[in-house]
Design a protein that fits this description.
The protein has 18 helices and 18 strands. It has 483 residues and is an alpha/beta fold. The chain has two domains: 203 residues, Maf protein (Alpha-Beta Complex); 190 residues, Rossmann fold (3-Layer(aba) Sandwich). The protein is globular.
Length: 483
């Protein structure tokens, strides 16, 4: 490990890939197997070259041929090979072989591990850049159960050889981090990019499990991926486990609701129920092939400065308790979100939103970084198979109900707005609940924080109980007793 001086600060650089591999090799207690499919034996090569690998490498293999791979690990239901299921079978199978073939009496202090990857690098025509699954199953105490780190990556480089080299470095970082940085998952996550650049590879999903990671909330790890610029969007399900967006969105109809959800209010759920009903009524929409997503942007999470992780987990906990799929993105502009979806599906998409959000879409200041300005953004947004389901707004001063017909945009945007409105891109939610129009998440949040009464009535049935039971959003019985 080297250090360099920059100004008055001493910056410690990460160990080289060779240095990391050598440290693993020189640890007499670490012993395991390498199984790599799809890009050669790129990771284990570092351990062979570092020296001293005979005490670390139990076996290195590449079941490249599909017939041999199936014979060893079994046949996947979907007949695919670059999948999370395949990776998990690989690391588990190899650990079982080690446990069966090696006597624990002779290896009392040995920490077994199995590292695996199954990837598809860039194709010959360079139309598909490639992706893969990487993981490690490992012990940190011979008497403990195994821990597991599983991640999905997307290659960004345009050369297969470069992708292979990148994969090898990432594999070394994963193995080294598993044994030496496991006590600090956030630092472990950052270490995956040691000796790599973010324009080489993207990590868009990761899950930690096992006794040493029992305290790790994988949703928080998802947030770190976006926060650290490792990916643009992450997703997790109602059970709190991270999901691969590409798999969840592939060839699906997608309906999205963007908000702070701090907390979820009656108006949020009224938009959800009414927009969902309208979306399912569309002829192009197959209910069985639809994914509904509650999206929170990074800018929303950091609106008050630094991201408050407890606050994020409170929102995530509430949405998961309601059985929703949640996505965290760094897409401040809607057109970027729709572009992202378009990578995985060409089917009908929908956005459920309030009037205020639609007004922002027609604000030119959000598109100054685009050479084509707002017209370029709208081309990316509205010329996809997309509809907006608009929930009305009540003017607090006049009491007027504002919808798509009465909405006023900037004079320069008037004709543009009319074009999309009268081409059926904006659909009004008509049968809304008028009692919800004066409910705002920020008001409810402040009432909970200040110990005020009456906020429960502003939330959907059962939500206030979840907040109280799990002490979300700073709720405390003491505050209300004082009142």
């Amino acid at each position: 490990m080297s250090s360099v001086t920059k100004g008055d600060k001493n910056i410690v650089s990460a160990p080289s890939s060779k240095g990391k591999a050598l440290r693993i090799n020189l640890n007499n207690n670490i012993y395991g197997t390498f199984a790599e499919i799809g890009a050669g034996q790129e990771t284990v090569r570092h351990f062979f070259r570092a020296g001293g690998g005979s005490g670390t490498i139990a076996k290195a293999m590449s079941a490249y041929d599909k017939t041999f791979s199936d014979a060893i690990y079994g046949i996947e239901e979907d007949k695919r090979y670059v999948t999370e299921s395949r990776l998990k079978k690989m690391v588990t199978h190899e650990i079982h072989l080690m446990e069966d073939r090696l006597s624990r009496e002779k290896h009392k202090n040995t920490l077994f591990f199995s590292y695996a990857n199954t990837v598809a690098t860039i194709d010959f025509a360079k139309n598909f850049k490639g992706h893969g699954w990487i993981g490690i199953k490992f012990q940190l105490d011979p008497l403990e159960d195994y821990n597991e780190i599983i991640m999905h990556v997307r290659f960004k480089e345009n050369d297969a050889r470069l992708q292979q080299e990148t994969l090898g470095v990432l594999g070394v970082n994963l193995i080294y981090g598993a044994f030496y940085i496991h006590d600090s998952p956030k630092d472990l996550l950052k270490s995956f990019y040691d000796n790599l650049d973010k324009d080489q590879i993207e990590i868009d999903m990761i899950n930690f499990s096992g006794p040493r990671f029992a305290y790790v909330d994988n949703r928080l790890m998802s947030l770190q991926l976006v926060k650290n610029g490792m990916t643009n969007a992450v997703m997790f399900g109602p059970d709190g486990n991270n999901l691969l967006p590409a798999k969840q969105l592939y060839k699906k109809n997608i309906l999205t609701f963007r908000g702070s959800f701090r907390p979820v209010t009656k108006v949020n759920m009224d938009i959800y129920h009414k927009a969902t009903k309208l979306f399912y009524a569309e002829k192009k929409v197959d209910k069985e092939k639809t994914k509904i997503i509650f999206e929170i942007t990074l800018s929303n999470l950091s609106a008050e400065g630094e991201i408050n992780e407890r606050d994020f987990l409170d929102r995530a906990e509430l949405l998961c308790s309601l059985g929703q799929h949640v996505m965290i993105t760094d897409f401040s502009e809607y057109y970027k979100l729709v572009e992202f979806y378009s990578e995985f599906t060409k089917k009908r998409m929908g956005l459920g939103m309030g009037v205020y959000n639609l007004i922002q879409i027609f604000d030119e200041k959000y598109y100054r970084n685009l050479s084509g300005g707002i017209l370029e953004a709208f081309g990316k947004l509205f010329f996809k198979d997309l509809k907006i389901y608009l929930y009305p707004l009540k003017d607090v001063k006049t009491g007027e109900i504002i919808n798509s017909r009465t909405l006023k945009v900037h004079p320069r945007m008037k004709e543009l707005y009319k074009f999309f409105k009268y081409n059926g891109k904006v659909i009004d939610i008509e049968n809304y609940d008028p009692e919800t129009l004066e409910i705002f998440s920020r008001k409810v949040f402040q009432m909970i924080q200040n110990g005020e009464v009456g906020w429960e009535e502003m939330l959907p049935e059962g939500v206030s109980e979840i907040i109280k039971d799990q002490r979300l959003f700073g709720y405390s019985k003491r505050k209300f007793r004082k009142k």
